[in-house]
Specification:
This protein has 248 residues and is an alpha/beta fold. The protein contains eight helices and seven strands. 44% of the residues lie in helices and 13% in strands.
C-alpha cells in the first residue's frame, strides 16, 4: 500500500473534535487526505489542527458549526463547492446520546434535540454533499451507526430510534445512487473508550475498552474499498478479529 493512499483526496469529517470523529480525522490526514473537520468547539478543532500539522506538515480546514442549525450544512456545501469543487470522502461521526430514560418520560424538547442532530442533520448532510460526492472520481460516504439500531434496549430510545432511522435513510440513499460512483457504508464502531460510552455506562472501566484511534486503519480502508450497497453494517470488532474487510 502507498504511504499516502488518500493523497489529494478531500475528506469531510463531522464530530471531529473528539472521540471517534477525532480519530477518523487524524487517520485520514495521515493517509494523505486534506481533512475538513467539523465540530461545535473552535478550540478543540484548533487542537486537532495542531495534531494534524505535527503529523503531516499540512493544515486541516476547520469548520466550527452546530450541525443541528437549519441552514449550516447548505452553506458548508456551497463553501466546499467554491473551494474544492468536489468531496471525495464523507465521514459522519457526529451524534449525541440523549436522555437515558423510559420513552414515556422523555421531554419533547430533549427528543427534538436528539432527532435534530442524529437524524435530521444526517439528511441535510446527504442533501448538501451529494452533488459534491458525484463530482468525485472515487466518492465514499461512511456513516457511523450503532448496534442499538437493531437491538433495542430499555432507556436507549432516542438514540436507538435515530440510529435506526439513519440506517434506513443511508440504505435508501445508496440504492438511489447505485448507478453512480458514490458508495456508502454503515459502520458500527462497537464499544469504544468515548465520552458518549462513559455517559451511557458510568460504572464501566474505560481501561478495558478499545481506544478510538484503533478504528483509524478501518476508516482508511473503507475510504478506498470497492463497496457494494450496504445491506448490513461493517462492525469494527468483527473487522479487528478477522483482520480483513471482506469478513467484517
Amino acid at each position: 500500500m502507498s504511504e499516502s493512499p488518500l493523497k489529494d483526496r478531500i475528506a469531510l469529517v463531522t464530530g471531529a473534535s473528539r472521540g471517534i470523529g477525532h480519530a477518523c480525522a487524524l487517520a485520514l490526514a495521515a493517509a494523505g487526505a486534506h481533512v475538513v473537520a467539523v465540530a461545535r468547539t473552535q478550540g478543540a478543532l484548533e487542537a486537532l489542527d495542531d495534531e494534524i500539522k505535527a503529523a503531516t506538515g499540512q493544515p486541516a480546514t476547520l469548520v466550527a458549526m452546530d450541525l443541528a442549525e437549519a441552514d449550516g450544512l447548505d452553506q458548508l456545501g456551497l463553501a466546499l463547492h467554491n473551494r474544492f469543487g468536489r468531496l471525495d470522502i464523507l465521514v459522519h461521526a457526529a451524534a449525541m446520546l440523549g436522555p437515558m430514560t423510559p420513552v414515556a418520560h422523555i421531554e419533547p424538547k430533549h427528543w427534538d434535540k436528539v432527532v435534530a442532530l442524529n437524524l435530521t442533520a444526517s439528511y441535510r448532510l446527504i442533501r448538501a454533499m451529494e452533488p459534491l460526492l458525484r463530482a468525485s472520481e472515487h466518492p465514499r460516504a461512511i456513516f457511523l451507526t450503532s448496534g442499538r439500531a437493531i437491538r433495542p434496549k430499555a432507556f436507549w430510545g432516542p438514540y436507538g430510534v435515530t440510529k435506526a432511522g439513519l440506517e434506513h435513510m443511508v440504505r435508501t440513499w445508496a440504492d438511489e445512487l447505485e448507478q453512480t460512483k458514490v458508495r456508502a457504508v454503515l459502520l458500527d464502531p462497537s464499544i469504544m473508550r468515548t465520552r458518549m460510552r462513559a455517559e451511557a455506562m458510568p460504572g464501566e472501566d474505560p481501561a478495558n475498552l478499545p481506544d478510538p484511534s484503533e478504528i483509524g486503519p478501518l476508516i482508511v480502508e473503507l475510504a478506498q474499498a470497492d463497496l457494494g450497497l450496504p445491506s448490513a453494517s461493517v462492525v469494527f470488532s468483527t473487522w479487528k478479529t478477522a483482520g480483513t474487510l471482506a469478513s467484517a
